[in-house]
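Sample intake sheet
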Amino acid sequence: MSSLQKVLITGASSGIGRALALRLSQRPIHLALSGRSAEKLAAVKAGCAEAATVELFPADIIVPHAAAKMVQAAHAAMDGLDAVIHCAGMGLIKPTLETTDAEFVSVTNLNMRGTFLVAQEACRLMVAQKRGLFVTIPGILGKAAMKNSAAYCASKFGVTGLIKVMAQEFQRSGVRFTLAYLGGVDSPFWDGIGMAVQRDKMIPADYAAQLLEAALDAPGHLVMNEIMLQPESHQM
């Protein structure tokens, strides 16, 4: 079992974040769950096992100062922050010439800027305590391009670059970073995507959560820098 006991999960109201919260709640762990919907977070908490202490911190991380305040509140409530698993994000699969400026701004604002805001404050606190793990999910489109996904790829490639820079800046500070390049996870991501997909052939959200759990379980002097998993039909 990991020695990490104080964990913040963003995007915890659905998809991988929700699956991870439910998995980790089976441990004697202190969980801080964040997402935009207080109602959905409450439903996740209701499904969590009794082994964990679960607290909720609803926040829209792209609202000015909201991300920093949310991370600070979680840190204060748990009296520390061993790990942040940043799952918040949004998708857009649309041809470049059909993508509007507003759509491009919306996707990059949440996926890239949102990650920056959460990671920046988390690292500020983790450096001060000389330990911490930051995990985020650029997905496979943060490593490989795919047609009809210009805005989404731009945002996720940006996340990859951002975290790799931060890993260099915070080297030997006690802060570790994990990037998860997961492709085709069966989650609500696909609910609003006008694209023919075989969801039964995708990565189950709980299995994706299991991989992130493995990153948490790495000994403190080791780090799982990158995780890559794809459906067999989507191999790079």
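Comment: The chain has a mean pLDDT of 92. The beta strands are 6-10, 30-33, 53-56, 83-86, 132-136, 175-182, 185-186, 203-204, 226-229.
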